[in-house]
Write a structure and sequence with these properties.
- GO terms for molecular function: ATP binding; ATP hydrolysis activity.
- It is found in: Cell inner membrane.
- The chain is α/β, with parallel strands linked by helices.
- The protein has 2 domains: about 1-85 and about 165-185 and about 195-248, Rossmann fold (3-Layer(aba) Sandwich); about 90-165, no CATH class.
- Helix content is about 40%, strand content about 25%.
- It has 11 helices and 10 strands.
- Strands 6-7-8-3-9-10 form a 6-stranded mixed sheet, with helices on both faces. Strands 2-1-4-5 form a 4-stranded antiparallel sheet, with helices on one face.
- The chain starts with a strand and ends with a helix.
- About 40% of the residues are buried.
- Bound molecules: adenosine-5'-triphosphate (ATP).
- Adenosine-5'-triphosphate binds near residues 35, 38, 42 and 53.
Length: about 250
Amino acid sequence: MLLKVENLSLYYGPKRVLKDVSFSLEEGEILCIVGESGSGKSSILYSIARLLPKGARVEGSIRFKGMNLLNLSERELRRIRGKEISFVFQEPSLYLDPLFKIGSQIEEAYRAHMGKNGARQKAYEVLRKVGIQDVDRVYNSYPHQLSGGLKQRVCIAIASVCEPSLILADEPTTALDVTLQSSILSLFRRTKEEGRSVLLVTHDFGVVAEIADRVLVLKEGQVVEEGDVYSIFENPKHEYTKRLLLSL
Ligand SMILES: Nc1ncnc2c1ncn2[C@@H]1O[C@H](COP(=O)(O)OP(=O)(O)OP(=O)(O)O)[C@@H](O)[C@H]1O
């Protein structure tokens, strides 16, 4: 078991955004979290990465490789973020630094945890791995010179450069047009084949159908249904899940 979340609750002031959320994730598994807007999907990812705003209060436990992430200091967290657990966001432009070339951003992510040696070689390697053909050009480009799809590939390259065991992805294809979506999703599948686990948030059952092994259905901060992708599609138990499926 790579990740075990137990009775996770999240409060913003008096408002309870997550209610006793429990689930687990095996190595090499892709779990999709689905639910309507505002159901708390992103909040689960941010709780795991401990990237919550000031004033947020978390209860429960989040065990990752035996450590409770909720008990770690900021220093310990910095050692884990980017190396053991990495993040892919919805909007790659907000994540990439406009002032630095792609190559140096990948190398920076590598050096932060893995030391100076081999950064350049590794940057080229991950760019190739995410399916980029003209690696030299992309390596030497600034973010604004790349299309949205390429930028998201770069973000996945950055997220995997330190070979983390867990990738948290928040609506990673929502900002892209449909034709690009599956090519980006297939990168997560490749990540899985390398033994990494992916926790992917989406409101889109099309995405779920394409890559999930298991699905967690969230409604108003609570898990209403959990199961493997086939049973969720073929035999949804909860009315809410059926409604979400109908909107597909
Ligand atoms: N910083 C914050 N302060 C107060 N409430 C917040 C904050 N961030 C999120 N919330 C609330 O928490 C709830 C869950 O939000 P969250 O973004 O996790 O949902 P989501 O399912 O990911 O939605 P979406 O698909 O729209 O991103 C919402 O009611 C939201 O308004």
